[in-house]
Amino acid sequence: MKKLLFLFILIHGFCFSQDLEESIYVAAETFMAQPSEATFQTLAKQEAQFKSQVKTKDEQLALVFLQSHKGHYLDTHSRLKDAIITYEDAVKRFNDYELSKLSDFDIIESCLIPLGNLYTKTNDYTNAESTIKQYSYLAKKNNKPQHEISGAINLAQLYYAIGRHETAIKLTSSFINYPNITSSQKQNLININAESQIALEIIPTSLDNKQNYKMAIQEGQYEKALTLFQKFKKKRLAIESLQKREIAQVYIEEAQIYLLNKNSNKALQSIQTALKTLIPNANFNNLPIKEQLYAENKFIDIFDLYSEIETNSDLALKSYDLSFYVSDLLKDTWTSQETIIYNQSNYRKRSEKCIAILYSAFQKTKDTTYILKAFEYSENSKVFTLKEMFQKKQRLQKHPTDSLLIQEFNLLKDQEHITSKLVLEQLDKNRASQITTLSKQLSDISLKIKSLKNAISDKYPGLENLISIKNLQNKLHEDNAVLVEYFYGKHAIYQFIISNSNIELNKIDNTDKTEKSIVDFISLFDNVSIINNDISNFSSQAFKLYKLLNFDAVSSFNKIIIIPDWWLNFIPFETLLKEETNTTAFSKMPFIVKSQNIIYNSSAYFYTTDNNSKSNNNLLGFFPVFKNSNKTLTYSIDEANAIKKEMASKMLMNKEATKANFLKNASNYGMLHLSTHSSHGVSGKPANIDFYDETLYLNELYSLNLNPNLVVLSACETGKGKLYKAEDAMSIARGFQYSGARNLLFSLWQINDLSTSKIMQSFYENYSDTQSAHYSNQLSKLAYLENESISNTKKSPYYWGAFVYYGELTKPITSSYLFYVIISALIILIIVFLRTKFKKPHG
C-alpha cells in the first residue's frame, strides 16, 4: 500500500512539475504573440505566481525564458529600471541554478547583452563594463564569435560615452577584421572608431553621413553640417525597429545643430518632438512636470539643451533642475562610487551654468537669495560619494543593531575590496579568467545592495547633502572664522566668501592666462631647486596668485576655512604672499601663514557637521624606515622618537610596520601616523602607500571603517591623485576620508625627509600642548621659518609648505590658558568659601 501511495505521489508530482513548466512557456508565448499593456499586466501577475511555485531546474529555465521576454518588452517601452530588475533576476536565476548545464539556452543573447546595454542607457557604467566583459569572456570561452563581437561593439560604445576615446579606438581596431564578423557589425565598429577619432580631433580615413556632419561641426561649417544631418536623419528614421529613445536622439542632435546655426525656434521644435517621443501621451506646454519623467538619460540631454536656448533665466533654471531630477532618478539605481564619479562630470557642467545664471541675476538685482541658491549648487556638486558614505556611517552609528544597515555596510566594504583587486588584476592582460570572476562577484554584490535600497529608504529618510546657511554662519561665529569656497568651472572660477554676518559671490574669469598662473605656481613645487633657482620669480607668482584668487578680500580674518576645487586642491595657500616683496630671505617674506591660520575642507557640509570623536586618543605609528635599501627614510626614526616623547603612542617600526598590522590595528586607535613612501599613482595604478612588506592601494582604504580623530600622513604626495570633476583628487588622503577620517594632515608633493622630520617634531610638540591640529600645523611652519639653524635655502616653501590640514577647528588649549583657567577656578572657590564661612545666620 505504501509503495502504491509513493508511486502515486511521484507520478502526480512529476505531472504537476510538467504542467507548471508548460504553463510558464505557454504564458510567455501567449504574451509574445500579442504584446500589449493588457497582456503584459497579465504576464506580470502570472510571473509573480510562478516565482512562488517553481522548484525544479526545468521550471527555473522556463521562468528565465519568460523573464527575458518581459525584460525586452519593458526595454522597448522605455521602462528601463523595471527592465533592468527583470533581466538581473533572470541572469541570477540562470547562474544560481547552473542552468547552462541543463540547456543551450542563449543567456548572452536573451539577457546579458540587453542588460549591459540598459546599464549603459542609465549611465550605470561600472555595471555595464562588468556585464559586457563577463559575456564577452563567456562568448570567447564557448566559441561564440558573434556574441564576442557584440561585446566589443557595446564595450567600445560605453568607452566612447564616458570619454575613453583612445581605449575605444584600440578596441574597435582590434575587432574590425575579426573572423566571421558581419558587414553590419564591421560598420558599427568603424563608426565608433571614427567618432572616437573625431572626439580626439583626428580626421578619420572613412566617414558616413553621421561622421561627416560631426566633422563639419568640428570644422565650424554649421550650415554644411545641417545639410549632411538631414540626409542622415532621413535614413535613420526609415529604420522601423528604432526604439523611442533612438528616435528622440535624432531630434536631440537636430536641435543641437539648429542651435549652432543660431536658429533657436527650430531647435525648440526639435526638442519638443524629442520630448513628445519619450512622453507620447503627456500634456505640457514647454516643460513637463517631474511626475511625467522617468529614469532615462535622454531627458538630461533634452533639458540641458533647452536651458541653453531659453533666454528666461527662471525657465532655464527650471529646466536644469529637471535634469538634476532625472540624474537623481538614475543615481537611485547605481551602487558603486566609480559610476557616480563618472557621472559627476556632467553634473558639474550643469552646476556651473546654473551658478552663471544666478551670478548674472545677482549682479542685476543685488538680491542675496541668488547667491544662496548658487552656493547650494556649488555644495551639491562637491564630493558626493564622500558625503554619502559619511551619512551612511552616521546612520549606522545611530542604529548599530539594525540588520539592514549592517548588511548594507558590509556589502559596500566587500564591493570596494573586490574593486581594489579588480583594478590590480586589470593591469595584467593575461588574467582574463580572474577578471571575469571578480566582475561577476561585483555584479552579485551590486544586486544585493539594490535589493536592500528600497527596504532601507522605506525605513529611513533619504540622505541629504544640503546645508543650512544659518547653521554655517553660527558655526563661523563660534569659531571666529570665515569660509572661502571655490567652484572651478570651465569658463569661470566662482568664489563664495561667507562670514557670520555676510555672504559674497565673486567671479574670476577662467582664461588661458588664469589657468596658466595656477598651474605654473603648482609646478614650482615639482622639485627642490625650482624656487631657489629663481626666488624673485617665486615671490612674484605667489603675490599675483594671491591677488588673482581674490584672497585679499579676507585679509582681515585670522582663521580661514578654504574649500578648494579642481587645480586649487594642489595650491598651498599658506605659501602665497600678501604683499609684493624684493627680499630673497624666506623668513622675511609676508607669507599668509604668518598672519592667518588656513584650514581646508572638502565641503562646507563637513565643516558644519559634528564629528563623532573616539574617546581613545592614543596614537598608532607606522615607520617602515626601509633600512639598507634605496628607499631608506633615515630621519623617520627621529620623527618616531620625537612623537613618543609627546604622545601616548605605540610605534610599529621596521619589520613590524606591515600592511597586515595596519589592517588589524588601525581601527582601535584615535590617532594614526604613517611615516613612509607614497605615490599618487602611475601607469594605470591608483594612488598607494607603502608598508614594510606590501603596498596599500586606494580602493583598499575605501573598504575600511577606521573613523580616527586624526590621521597624519608623513609621506610624499598623499594629497595628489587623478583629478575628477566634483570629487577632486583620488588620493591616499581621500581614501582615509572615505574610511572615516574627518581630520587629516597630508602632503601635496614629494617632501624632504629631514625637513619633514623637523616639521613633524614641531607639530607634535605643539599638539601635545594645544590639542589643536590646525593651530599646531601653523605653529610648526612658523617655527621652521624662525629656526636660525636652518639655512635660507632650506627655508624655501618647498620644504615647509607641503603639509595641509583638512578638518575641524579645535580651540587650542595653551599652557597659559590652562594656568588662567586654574587660577580663575581657585579664585572662585576662595570667594565661595569665604562667603559661606562669614555668611550671617538666618533669624
From TrEMBL:
<keyword id="KW-0812">Transmembrane</keyword>
<feature type="domain" description="CHAT">
    <location>
        <begin position="555"/>
        <end position="808"/>
    </location>
</feature>
<dbReference type="InterPro" id="IPR011990">
    <property type="entry name" value="TPR-like_helical_dom_sf"/>
</dbReference>
<dbReference type="Pfam" id="PF12770">
    <property type="entry name" value="CHAT"/>
</dbReference>
<keyword id="KW-1133">Transmembrane helix</keyword>
<protein>
    <submittedName>
        <fullName>CHAT domain-containing protein</fullName>
    </submittedName>
</protein>
<feature type="transmembrane region" description="Helical">
    <location>
        <begin position="817"/>
        <end position="834"/>
    </location>
</feature>
<dbReference type="InterPro" id="IPR024983">
    <property type="entry name" value="CHAT_dom"/>
</dbReference>
<keyword id="KW-0472">Membrane</keyword>
